[in-house]
Write a structure and sequence with these properties.
It contains twelve helices and eleven strands. The radius of gyration is 21 Å and the shape is globular. Helix 10 (about 205-220) runs parallel beside helix 12. By secondary structure, the chain is an alpha/beta fold. The strands form two sheets. The protein has a seven-stranded mixed beta sheet, sandwiched between helices. A four-stranded antiparallel beta sheet has the order 8-9-11-10. It folds into two domains: about 1-195, Type I PLP-dependent aspartate aminotransferase-like (Major domain) (Aspartate Aminotransferase, domain 2); about 205-309, Aspartate Aminotransferase, domain 1 (Alpha-Beta Complex).
Length: about 300
């Protein structure tokens, strides 16, 4: 990959004269079965361009309350597109459905409320631990939205991971959507970049997902943490640490041992596998966290005993 970057033929992309960018965009469009694609530095930029094109000022965008486009993109829809976000919290097993979206849609032009201009769907859902939406669920959302003349954008940053988990091509997964963003820097392992396209058939590696499952299985045997391996569907693993342990403290401590993880909240640690991580390294990550949990759990117990002695 580094050799390809170093030896790439370049040109002025403003004038469409960069043959490497042109080839990449044509390849992405072909994979997703779309007419065109645009190479961008980041997924945030790609998402925000899509939102800006789809919605009008004063409209609103409906999305999952845990969606990256709502939580982690610096309120850009309000700044760039002049619109607001309408987050909804899925029920049931935590996957976004049309049943969760339908009650908050507003298409009445006589209403003083903001009109629904777009629905943004994320698949897999990063902050839900990498849960995937089925093709049927996405088709239902898009079909119902299109019947109301509402476009639907797919934040498919990790769409290749969803493809592997479901055994369905990314072209098929993304077909009903009006636009799709996917990251070259996620499942494909590139150092930077995202694509904005309008669908896809690409073979992703199974290795990341198998490693995540291995970690989930190993964590299931660790006292002091909670995890349901059945909820690990892609390469994202969420581990719950039991009070009084705090996820933020754990993240800082294990970083000193070379393990880089993040925390979602005070009790949830987030781990993500990728193609450069081996199975043994994943199991070592579990061992590092287990040692921390065990040591600090014992320390809290000793402190409690001293307090009562």
């Amino acid at each position: 990959m580094r050799d390809a970057i170093r030896n790439a033929v370049v040109g002025d992309d403003v004038y469409g004269d960069d043959p490497t960018a042109n080839e990449l965009e044509a390849r992405a469009a072909g994979i997703f079965g779309r007419e065109a694609a645009l190479f961008l530095p980041s997924g945030t930029m790609a998402n925000q361009i899509a939102l800006f094109v789809h919605v009008g000022r004063g409209e609103e965008i409906i999305c999952d309350a845990r969606a990256d486009v709502y939580l982690w993109e610096m309120a850009m829809p309000a700044i760039l597109a002049g619109c607001i976000m309408r987050p909804v919290m899925p029920g049931g097993d935590g996957r976004l459905t049309w049943q969760a979206i339908a009650p908050v849609i507003n298409r009445d032009p006589a209403d003083w409320k903001a009109q629904t201009g777009l629905i943004a769907v994320e698949n897999p859902t990063n902050m839900a631990g990498g849960l995937v939406l089925s093709p049927r669920a996405m088709e239902e959302i898009c079909t119902a939205a299109h019947a109301l003349a509402i476009p639907v954008h797919l934040d498919g940053a990790r769409i290749f991971n969803a493809s592997v988990a479901l055994g369905v091509s990314v072209e098929q997964l993304s077909r009903p959507f009006d636009s799709v963003m996917f990251c070259l820097s996620k499942g494909l392992g590139a150092p930077v970049g995202s694509m904005l396209v309008g669908s896809h058939d690409f073979i992703a590696r199974h290795r990341d997902h198998a490693h995540a499952q291995a970690m989930a299985g190993a964590f299931a045997g660790v006292s002091g943490v909670a995890i349901d391996p059945r909820r690990v569907e892609t390469n994202v693993v969420h581990v719950i640490v039991r009070p009084p342990l705090r996820a933020s403290a754990l993240v800082g401590a294990v970083a000193q041992q070379g393990l880089l993880v993040t925390h979602v909240d005070d009790q949830t640690v987030r781990l993500v596998t990728h193609q450069d991580v081996t199975r043994d390294e994943c199991l070592e990550a579990v061992a590092i966290i287990e040692r921390y949990v065990t040591a600090h759990g014992e320390a809290h117990e000793s402190a409690a005993l001293r307090a009562h002695s």
